[in-house]
Structures are given as structure tokens and as C-alpha cells.
Amino acid sequence: MRCTSEIDVRDVDESCINIDPIQVGGRLTADAMKAVIAYGDGYSVCDHCRKPFRLDFIQKPPIQQFHKELAAFVNMDEARVVPGARRGFQAVAGTYVQKGDPVLITALSHYTEVLAVENNGGIIREIPADDGKTITTDSAAETIETVSREFCRPPVLLFLDHFDYQYGNEHDVRGIIRVARQHDIPVVYNGAYTVGIMEVDGKGLGADFVVGSGHKSMAAPAPSGMLAATTERAAEVFRTTEARTDLTGRTFGIKEVEMMGCTLMGVTLVGMMASFPHVRERVKHWDEHLSRGRKVVESLERIVGTRIQSEMPRNHTLTRVDTIQSFDKVANTHKKKGFFFSSELKARGIAGIIPGATKVWKFNTYGLSAAQSDYLAETFLGIAEKYGLDIQ
Amino acid sequence: MSKRAVDTVFEALFTLTDIRMMLRDTAPQHRLDDDEKEAAEAMLRSLEGNIRTLRKELIG
Question: What percent of chain A lies above the pLDDT cut of 90?
Fold first, then answer.
């Protein structure tokens, strides 16, 4: 089946249970798909853009109201939509980081935080993870002290992932933010794996900024995301242009410098908006998703030799698993090598695990129904049984 | 301009979208329970109505 002569239809989520670690929270709701159908054209949300000609002032569709609701959703004062969480990091780094400034991230931070700092000439220092691959308050406090001594001033910014992309481990954001505030370090709460799937209270945590990913966790098309800020920080990161061109004397109203004017001007925004009522509701049911994910993890643990590398018990549906002593042993003698595993999964209607991976791999069960998560758990056990692996 | 034809096209596309979501929710086996079958039946009836309307509006 093809969309065009050269583009295949993408039907992975219609045909399979998709457990791709980065895709599941971004699957569209039915309402988002319908909005995408109606608003696919380029500047589709701009039909009713009137003075002062800025995206977050448009009232039809209700984009202005959506921005207010977005800020409230994460308990912050102001919010803007951005083309992915990374553009939120970039906006904050662009505001606070100058060449040679020390900036803290963690040993498990996403690479886009690094790029945002690098782009402004900042110098990165990482807070180390402990043996359990978590970032502790003590570790953060120690790193802040060390870096402050090294640079004779505190870091200008701290990027902090609540749950990291590598292990899906939870880090002590509340404690770390408290320590950062004692040193007057602004904190960017990276909620790429939280905002849109679980409740987030930005000001309650003490964060200066909350960044969310539309396509990762808010059931929205890519690239989409949000940057929310406290009133004080909003005045800085959402500052408006003051430029006047030399020859023509042009000025540009209230366009925001870090946003590069308007951000999501069509299908990405309207998809995000259409999903939002469902997203706001689904965060209240995070425990159900977590419980289903834990059942799948339990079934994997029953396969002798399999080791869950993520923290246990699981506090997130994204999990990293080591199957070197189980499925990889099968791969060593199988004619398809590591591809036997993905082939077996595909034959059973499971997609999203990197083809060929049998050593260490990640999966995410977010959004599966009870029946689907049960089926997935049974599928892992079934494949193990077929290849003679011991099951506890 | 046939406003009715335009509206009907969107209505049909939206109903097809609901069917698409049903396929997602029941993947990979697509075994529908009684409630889901009833919902599918209603959606298919709606689509048939849309096609009749479009035929009338566009072809006469």
C-alpha cells in the first residue's frame, strides 16, 4: 500500500503493537488525526490572524486560549508552543548562556541540551549518575560546588531531565532544584518523558522553565513541544524584538526573538490542540499505564538470564533490558543472528524494537490497552519458550 | 459550491479515522468484541450514507 508512487503507507500502529521507546506517547488521538486532515495545508491556522499578528494571539482556532491552558497544565505562568523540546532548550540557552559560561546537565541528559549549550559557546559540566543510574541531590550539590570553584562563579543554567531517555529512571528533580535555587541557578525541567503522560507541577517543583515534547508525550505531530516559564523568566525568554533596520527603518511589532516570531503555524499546532483535552485527562491515569508496563517487565524477568537495567520497581513505562544471557544466546546460533528476535516479534505483530538488537534494548508500553499489554507479555514468554530458554 | 458535499467528505474522512483508531486499539489481531462490532457497524452505515450523499451532490 502506498501514499504516492514513492512513499509507502505507514501502518505500523494499525498492524502491530508498537513499543518503540520514543514513539508511543506521541501517537495521535482520533481528534488530532481529524484535525490533521482538515489543517494539513501550510499556514492553515493563520486564516484569522489579526493585529498584533502573533500566533499566541489568534482566537480562531482558539490558540490564545490554548496557550493559557498549556501554562496551567504544568502549573507555570506563561507558555509558548515550540518545534520540539529541543527548541525550548535552545530558547533558554540563547537567553542565559554566553561564551565561556558553565552550564550543568546530567550524565543522562539528552543530546539536544548539549547542542543548545554548545550553540551559545557554553561550557558543559555533567552531574554524575550513581551506580543505579540515577541523579541524586547530593551528586548535584557536589557538582555545583566543584563547578563554582572551577569557574569562580556558579553555573548559569541547569538542565534537568525528570526521567531520562536511556533508562527511563526517575531523578530527584525536587531536591536538585532546591539545591540549584540556593545558588541562584535557573533550572530547565526537561519533561519530554513526563509532560503529557503524567501530571507535572512546574512551580511546585521550583522550576524556572518546563519543557515538554508534543511528538514524544503529548499525542501531537512532529516537531512540536512547549516551553513554559514563571512570570519573571517569561519576561526574559519571551522578550520581544527591539530591532529597527538601518535602511528601511522597519520594526517588527511584538515578535519574540527566541521564538523567531511565530512557531507552529499549521498542522503541528492544531494536532497538539486537538489532542490536548485527551492528554489533560490521560495524565490522571498514569498509574494504569505504569501498572501494565510493570506486568510486561515481570514477564521479561521470568526469562532466565534477562536483566532489567532500569531502576526497579519501574516508575516509567520506558525500560532498558539486558538479554545478553537469554535472547542473545539464541542469536549466537540462529541463522538470522540477532534478527531472529525482531522477526519473531514481527510475526506476532510486535514492532518498535531495533531490528537485530538482542543484547541491550529499550521498549515503552505507554498507551497499550490491558489486552495489548497482556498479549505483549505473553509474546516475550512465547518466544523464549520456543527457543528453549528457561522460564521461572 | 456544494457545502453539503464538502461537509460530507470531511464527515466520511472522520468516520474512517475512527475506524482507523479501532484498528489501532485492537492491533495486532483485530478481534472485535460485541460492543466494538456494533460501533463498527454504525460507522460503516454512516459511511454508506456519506457515499450516497456524495453521489447525489456531485453526480446527480
Answer: 100
Name which of A14, A27, A44, A348 to mutate to probe chain B: the one with the most chain B Cβ atoms within 10 A of its Cβ: A14
**DSSP one-letter string for A270-287:** HHHHHHHHHHHHHGGGHH
Tell me, yes or no, if B60 comes closer than 8 A to chain A by beta carbon: no
Q: What is the pTM of this model?
A: 0.97
**Burial code of A104-131, b = ≥16 C-beta within 10 A, e = fewer?**
bbbebbbebbbebbeebebbebebebee
The segment(s) of chain A belonging to CATH 3.90.1150.10 are 12-25+285-386
Contact A111, A152 (CB under 8 A): no
Task: Give me the total of CB pairs closer than 8 Å, taking one residue from chain A and one from chain B.
Answer: 37
Please give the CATH topology (third level) of the domain spanning A43-265. Aspartate Aminotransferase; domain 2 (3.40.640)
pLDDT digits (tens, 9 = 90+) for A334-370: 999 999 999 999 999 999 999 999 999 999 999 999 9
ipTM topping 0.85: yes
Is B29 close to A15, i.e. CB distance below 8 A? Answer: no
* A2: three-class secondary structure by DSSP: strand
Binary contact (B27, A16; C-beta < 8 A): yes
Tell me: cis bond preceding A61? Omega within 30 of 0 counts. Answer: yes
Put simply, whether B59 touches A (Cβ < 8 Å) is no
Is A334 part of the contact surface with chain B (CB cutoff 8 Å)?
Answer: no
Does residue B1 have a pLDDT over 80? no
> Which residue on chain B is closest to A349 by alpha carbon?
B28
Residues of B in contact with A345 (CB under 8 A): none
Tell me whether B7 touches chain A (CB under 8 Å): no
Which are the contacts of A88, defined by CB distance < 8 A and separation ≥ 6?
A82, A188, A209, A211, A212, A225, A226, A227
Please report, as a single letter, which amino acid is at residue A258. E
CATH of segment(s) A12-25+285-386: 3.90.1150.10
Q: Does B25 touch chain A if contact means CB atoms closer than 8 Å?
A: yes
Residue ranges, comma separated, of all CATH 3.40.640.10 domains in chain A are 43-265
**What backbone torsions phi and psi does residue A358 show, to the nearest 5 degrees?**
-135, 0
Give the residue with greater pLDDT, A92 vs B1: A92
pLDDT digits (tens, 9 = 90+) for A85-138: 999 999 999 999 999 999 999 999 999 999 999 999 999 999 999 999 999 999
Q: Per residue in A303-328, pLDDT tens? A: 999 999 999 999 999 999 999 999 99
pLDDT at A180: 98
Taking the CA atoms of A23, A382, A169 and A361 in sequence, report the sign of the dihedral they define. negative
Q: How far apart are CA B39 and CA B43, in angstroms?
A: 6
